[in-house]
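Ops channel
N.P.: pipeline sanity check, posting one input/output pair.
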């Protein structure tokens, strides 16, 4: 439940951060990211798990569904700050924020597709999956979220116009709406995470609320608080004792490394020309690499165990025993890898800048020395050499060693030669 509420608040914030009518403007990019690319991420993650742990593919589909969505908590940590604002285009930051908010809720269809196949099997599973997941959970939650966001925006604007709401309540109104929607959707059994994202975007559809809270720092504060709190808790619940036997460390390492490398990056690089928001291969490289796995994976792992406990599935095998430790390991790897990427990039830039600067200074010093030696050679036979350092003039001295020492002073500004 802790991960559920963290996700609900984070996807609500992600929806609010997007510009005016964003889902309508960038629907083509979102369709590609949430359709073909997310589906391939799911299938590739499942294939990695199948080959590494030698379990049936249908069981691996349930575990792969947990790590398919990108995480809004880690995404916000990467897409906010000086590095992102300096090096990542705004359009790319927006599309990655929208994707991380939307695909967390859209993890349900992938998870329940595998669960229904194990539970029911055949064509009946497909029919149940369509109406129970896509129609009831996804479509209904989108309608509820859009309606709640619209009504909440109108009510808040009306209350603010007449002074019926104070500043603190105004700032926290979106968070209150997220918690309300979690309760409502949980009661009726729809997708609360996707509902909160749609509600957040509907809440700021006209950009009024986003502009009003833009300079308050509320969203950055909440992001920092939630990410710090959750990952402190996550570090305390990682089942380290489970990594033995079937979950041997080398198997875990293979899954983590392969998931980081081929789960997302190859698909984004191959299909980026079909995504209008990703304009070149450099953007595609960034978007493909920064697909972090975090809170949403833990949430879906717990949801998988819950569903398997409620419905005894003979085809489920032992995935209830391995899904949580395996997902925790992948999340730990993602936090480590994606967390250190930005510092390493900045460190590399500084090292290259330092080396380039040192090379330029050495080249300039050699050129200056050659010029000075040539002049000194002429001064012995033709006249005198004056070295002017600031307002002090050393004249009549043509001794090469001494003049070179004077010119080498950091304060030298000019050399004057007299015949």
């Amino acid at each position: 439940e802790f991960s559920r509420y963290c996700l609900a608040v984070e996807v609500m914030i992600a929806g609010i951060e997007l510009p005016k009518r964003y889902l309508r403007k960038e629907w083509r990019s979102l369709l590609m990211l949430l359709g073909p690319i997310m589906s391939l991420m799911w299938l590739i993650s499942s294939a990695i798990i199948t080959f590494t742990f030698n379990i049936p593919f249908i069981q691996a589909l349930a575990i792969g569904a947990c790590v398919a969505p990108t995480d809004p908590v880690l995404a916000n940590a990467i897409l906010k700050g000086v590095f992102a604002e300096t090096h990542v285009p705004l359009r790319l930051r927006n599309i990655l924020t929208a994707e991380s908010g939307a695909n967390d809720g859209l993890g349900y269809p992938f998870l329940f597709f595998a669960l229904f196949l194990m539970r029911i099997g055949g064509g009946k599973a497909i029919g149940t999956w369509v109406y129970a997941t896509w129609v009831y959970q996804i479509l209904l939650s989108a309608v509820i979220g859009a309606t709640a966001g619209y009504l909440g925006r109108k009510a808040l604007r009306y209350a603010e116009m007449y002074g019926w709401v104070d500043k603190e309540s105004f700032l926290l109104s979106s968070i209150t709406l997220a918690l309300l929607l979690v309760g409502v959707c949980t009661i009726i059994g729809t997708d609360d995470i996707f509902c909160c994202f749609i509600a957040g975007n509907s809440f700021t559809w006209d950009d009024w609320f986003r502009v009003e809270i833009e300079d308050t720092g509320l969203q950055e504060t909440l992001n920092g608080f939630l990410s710090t709190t959750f990952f402190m808790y996550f570090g305390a619940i990682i089942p380290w004792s489970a990594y033995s036997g079937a979950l041997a460390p080398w198997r875990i390492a293979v899954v983590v490394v392969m998931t980081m490398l081929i789960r997302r990056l190859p698909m984004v690089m191959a299909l980026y020309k079909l995504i209008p928001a990703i304009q070149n291969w450099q953007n595609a490289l960034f978007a493909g690499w920064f697909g972090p796995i975090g809170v949403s994976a833990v949430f879906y792992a717990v949801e998988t165990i819950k569903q398997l406990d409620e419905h005894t599935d003979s085809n489920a095998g032992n995935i209830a025993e391995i899904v949580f430790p395996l997902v925790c390991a992948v999340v730990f790897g993602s936090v480590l890898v994606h967390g250190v990427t930005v510092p390493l990039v900045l460190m590399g830039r500084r090292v290259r800048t330092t080396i380039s600067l040192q090379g330029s200074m050495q080249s300039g010093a050699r050129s200056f020395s050659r010029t000075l030696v040539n002049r000194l050679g002429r001064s012995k036979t033709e006249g005198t050499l004056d070295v002017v350092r600031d307002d002090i003039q050393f004249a009549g001295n043509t001794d090469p060693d001494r003049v070179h020492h004077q010119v080498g002073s950091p304060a030298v500004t000019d050399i004057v030669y007299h015949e």
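N.P.: looks fine end to end. The first helix runs from residue 2 to 17.
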